[in-house]
Amino acid sequence: MSAPTRRRRWLTICAVTASAALVAVPAGAAPGGGGSPFGPRVLGQLAAQREQSVGALTPSLKGDDGDGDDGNEADEIAEGADQYSEARTSPGVVAPGAYGAAWQSLSNLPRTKGSWRNVTDLPYNSDDPRYRDVDSNSSGGSGNVTGRMAAMAADDFGYVYAGSAGGGVWRSRSGGGHWQAISDRLPAQSTGALALDGAGRLWLGTGEATTNADAYLGSGVYVLTHPRHGTFSSHARVGGDELESTTVHQLRFGGGKVWAATSKGVWSHSTKTLKGAWKLEFAPNPEFLPGGSEAADPAAPYKNIANDIAIDPKNPNKVVLAVGWRSGDDYNGFYTKGADGTWTRITSGLGDLPADPDDVGNVTFARSADGSRYYAIDQSPEQLNTNPDSGLEGFYVSKSGSPTGPWTKIADYQGLAASGSALTSSGYMPGVQAWYNQFLTVDPSDPQHVYAGLEEVYESKDGGGTWSTVGPYWNFNFACWSIDPAKQTGDCSQTSHSDQHGVAIGRYHGRSFVYVGNDGGVYKRPLQGRQDAAGHATDWTSLNDGTIDTLQYYSVGIGKDLDHGGVSVTGGLQDNGQSVLRGNDRVMGSNFGGDGGDTLTDPANGCDIAEEYVYLSIQVTQNCAVNNGSWIDGSGEVTSFNVAPADNATGEARFIAPLAADAKSPSTWIAGGRHVWVQTHGYAIRSGDEWTGVYDLGAGHTATAVAASGGKVYAAWCGPCNNQGFTRGISVGNADGTGWHDIALPVDGTVPNRYLSGFAVDPKNADHVFLTVNGFSRHWTEGPGAGVGHVFESKDGGTTWTDISKNFPDVPADSAVITSNGGLAVATDLGVVYRAPGRTTWQRVGDLPAVAVLQLKLGPDGSTLYAATHGRGIYSIKVRDLG
Question: Distance between CA atoms of 669 and 696, rounded to whole angstroms?
């Protein structure tokens, strides 16, 4: 029996920055096309799409005219890939410090009564045997998962530290598991780098540097002097504000200094004192840094990207910098400091390690503890742009121990594919996302024992002569796999989740372990672990025990659990499908795979669920997608159905596209792409043909928010959606297709020319509606019409608007909901803000850390407010406690 069809997160997405959006460079094609734009997905199908797209989707900044692309941006950048950055930066460039000021403003607000309750602080089993339906990844082998881990650190006494993409830093005192959050007091919960220094201090570089869609900027570098017991404090920030609003890719130590590879060049600071400013060691294009003559250029965010620092163990004054934008630029390369103190590019003598800018992209270094060897991974812009199979240039070793080489190539993607990899299909092979997935480390006791991470985990015990894929992408295409729920994944051993980012080696109770961080959380295995005949590890352990909740939700849905009582809570996640938590569950299950987007759940029946994949792909189930895998022998056993409207097939929808049910008619759904789509069969819909296009928003326009009540529909859109000609608007009409018209938004800035993110319609009067606006005000945003304010009110169906922001912090607002008592709750990038009934000013709801809240929903009876955070799971609070 062949492996089942499965879907996975495939889409390469860009970084959101507070200075400007990084260019999106898809490493995979957008899904869609063909007769079944959603449906079952296999690697081969997706690989074929990517193979057709290479050469047309990846822009290079080399030799451009300063506009950030080569003149074909519309053709080269997948629209959906820009979603996060567009929403927060358009219509222009955002100055550094915006998020820091917003956090201070939010912290100074008075607080409501009540406290948040974490709903998802329990294990989330991606292999839950109840959910073996056609579009679940259950049985893939990843086991318990949580949100993306960007960095890892560990010591020899059982202490492990995990830095998450959006949920802060966590500590385990028991070699992994039983986690405790230790960075909640910081103004940034996005991790870029973690490192323990020789004195046992833990250094944290905030701002994730993976250059993907939901990577948030940081607030600098912090030090925790006693990491086994203490927690991070904003008072322990290193230096001044030099590294605020940057991302930190690596922290390295040498010569009494800490070096930081950042999105704004390479910086250094003394390790002896936290005071004093950071020193800018090298920026290849300083005129593009804040304060420089070209700082406002749209290309500025990717003109000074540094990836890693290699320090010669025998001579700490000999340093090699790996600098370069992953899609290519003239400045890409390796640099070292000459006798005159200036940094110059190394143009020869590296051996096999490339010196040509076309072949140097994202780079990771690692050196052996004895100083005898240096290793490197290099991602190639040229490969990314032209090779449909992989963007990996190779793995390398310097047997001299010097970072200047000479370097010898020890692996390429073909060799890795033959090492037991699950990625053997043309169009998707090892290193296809090497710009996003990289880690590298060396066994402290053996300079020839190396672990490397791309999409999978690889191990070599002979210095790179041979490799084993000890952590394959998944188990589906292996002979040992079985969908039988009684066998979990058949005879296959558990694997680690895919997409690797962080690695550390530590000891616990006298044994050494390797810890890996990836898009599914944290996993460990013995450093000298076991492998089967295929080279796959047989001893991975998931450390995602439920005490660490860094799940990255885009959405939340709540309905009554008719089988067990209470409610069923679902939500769409970054790279971890859709979670489902039913009334009597002690473990969450995963009933859909891939990236989970927006979610609709029937308030009267929590097993009636519509789950959005990306680009308006929609799947519906009426039994929670419970299935024992019987569909594999008969398609009639499938319990979830593809119901994507036509904009999915044409690619005319955003990465996470808006989806909503009519507040007064739950069987009427609204979906937004280029068109506004309506269907009236509720969860009984079985085909995308059942959608009706009721309004065309216009060529180049895509919906950013939709809402409906009593048949009246509101749709917000943008197009162009980036800071080059940004345009936004609102269209209003009826679900039956009548009365549609565009609202003439005032030019006086009453409604800012920024990304329109959400509507909340008064259930008593459909002409009374609230609008949330993302991005930052003109105080921070250099762009036409950026305006001020984040929350607006209309009492005449959108014809006129009033700014009701008052003391609302200047922070991106993501969505809103009118509470059952008549209050207004707004989700922001830093928490939830609330305006009580009859009040005009705002309060902060509870004490969530500085985490993005992307969606708010009320429970079936309206008594409970649920918040989908993008990094700390789902929380709830009683409406009566808000005051």
Answer: 17
Q: Is residue 860 a contact partner of residue 567, using CB atoms and an 8 Å limit?
A: yes
State the Cα–Cα distance between residues 826 and 853, nearest whole angstrom.
9
Burial 28-62, CB ≥16 within 10 A → b, else e: bbbbbeeeebbbbbbbebbbbbbbebbeebbbbbb
> What pTM does this model have?
0.92
**Distance from C-alpha of 575 to C-alpha of 9, rounded to nearest angstrom:** 5
Alpha-carbon gap, residue 262 to 192, rounded angstroms: 9
Listed in sequence order, the residues at least 6 apart from 267 whose beta carbon sits closer than 8 Å to its beta carbon are: 242, 243, 259, 260, 278, 279, 280, 281
Using DSSP's 3-state secondary structure scheme, residue 525 falls into strand
Q: Is the pLDDT of residue 361 over 60?
A: yes
What is the β-pairing status of strands 248-254 and 257-262?
antiparallel
Strands 588-592 and 124-125: parallel
Render pLDDT for 685-735 as a digit per residue (tens, 0 to 9). Answer: 999 999 999 999 999 999 999 999 999 999 999 999 987 889 999 999 999
Residue type, 393: E
* Res 94: pLDDT: 82
Answer yes or no: is pLDDT of 49 > 70. Answer: no
Cα–Cα distance measured from residue 620 to residue 607, given in angstroms and rounded to the nearest whole number: 10
pLDDT above 70 for 452: yes
Is 827 exposed, middle or buried, given 0-12, 13-18 or 19+ CB atoms closer than 10 A?
buried
DSSP 145: -
Q: What is the mean pLDDT of residues 315-321?
A: 95
For residue 812, give the nearest of 851, 769, 868, 857 by alpha carbon.
Answer: 851
Q: How far apart are CA 383 and CA 361, in angstroms?
A: 10
Looking at every residue in the chain, the average pLDDT score rounds to 89
